[in-house]
Amino acid sequence: MFSHCSAPKPAFSANRQTVVAADTVSFKNMSEKAVSYSWDFGNGETSTDARPVHRYFRSGDYTVTLTATDEKGKSKSITQLINVTPPKECLIRIETPMGNMLARLSDATPQHQDNFVKLVEQNYYDDLLFHRVINGFMIQGGDPNSRGASANARLGSGGPGYQIPAEFVDSLAHVKGALAAARTNNPQKASSGSQFYIVDGRSVTDAELNKQESSTGVRYPSDVREKYLEVGGAPFLDQGYTVFGQVIEGLDVIDKIAATKTLSGDRPEEDVWMKISLVR
Predict the structure, then answer these.
(1) Would you say which domain of life the source belongs to (predicted)?
(2) Residues 36, 50: contact at Cβ < 8 Å?
(3) Beta pairing class for 163-164 and 130-134
(4) What whole-number distance in Å separates Cα of residue 277 and Cα of residue 22?
(5) Are residues 107 and 78 part of one domain?
(6) Average pLDDT for 20-45
(7) 3 in a domain, yes or no?
(8) 184 secondary structure, DSSP code
(9) CA proximity to 18, closest of 62, 53, 75, 77
């Protein structure tokens, strides 16, 4: 029993004390004699939800603080430690004004993975635009000239001044959500050093996949074929452009960006910026 002058009693538990980066932590609030709550997750993010769910995208130890406040404005806090470990896969987070995406970079394309990670660590992509979007096809970005570009600027030719040799892998195909390297027309099919696109795509049939196998020599593994039939994509690009990753969360964000109104040159009327960071 609490007396009339007693302070609130904060209490909470987490569904796990150790979590892999990008996984969620659910907090159970067991506070008593409180009417409002303030959470500090130790990574600069906060919440006022009674029972929040939070995600950490960097490994480390985080002190979570819950402050419970009663109807008279009296507050009391309690803390708990959450340990976040690095992911076993190479993951990136793509933030946009239309939502965020989580993508996996493939170990099967090491040169593309290493280059993309290097650029992300240099904050190369921060504030660049998705400068070319085609609904039912793809969204493209990574041109350094798009940062702060005027509305009439011609975009799509910028880059870091080098190319990446093509790395074609049959198990990495242009299914919806595929992260692939843009390129200029060159006989080696070498990739742009920085520009990339994410497949939006359309429905795909078995006949189309059979035709692509016959014309390019690609041999789709059964799981890739099933994925194409399930979510669609752009198989006509396979063996022509290097796929080096896959969006594993946020396919709806691709749809939103792809559906934006565009100007000539397929540039969105309203700038769609990006910020890309490593999950580690």
Answers:
(1) Bacteria
(2) no
(3) unpaired
(4) 12
(5) no
(6) 98
(7) no
(8) -
(9) 62
Query: pLDDT digit string (tens) for 109-155?
Result: 999 999 999 999 999 999 999 999 999 999 999 999 999 999 889 99
Domain interval for residue 16: 12-85
Confidence bin at 1 (pLDDT 50/70/90):
very low
Assign residue 195 a region (left: φ > 0; alpha: ψ between -120 and 50; beta: otherwise). Answer: beta
Same domain, residue pair 176 and 101:
yes
Q: How many domains does the chain have?
A: 2
- Long-range CB pairs of 153-156 (<8 Å, 24+ gap) are 154/265, 155/129, 155/131, 155/265, 155/267, 156/131, 156/132, 156/195, 156/265
Neighbours of 215 (CB within 10 A): 11
Which pair of structure tokens corresponds to residue 98? 């239309």
Task: With H, G, I as helix, E, B as strand and everything else as coil, classify residue 166.
Answer: coil
Q: Give how far the C-alpha of residue 122 lies from the chain's centroid of Cα atoms, to the nearest Å.
A: 17
The first and second tokens of residue 168, run together, are 């074609």
Other Cβ atoms less than 10 A from the Cβ of 79: the count is 13
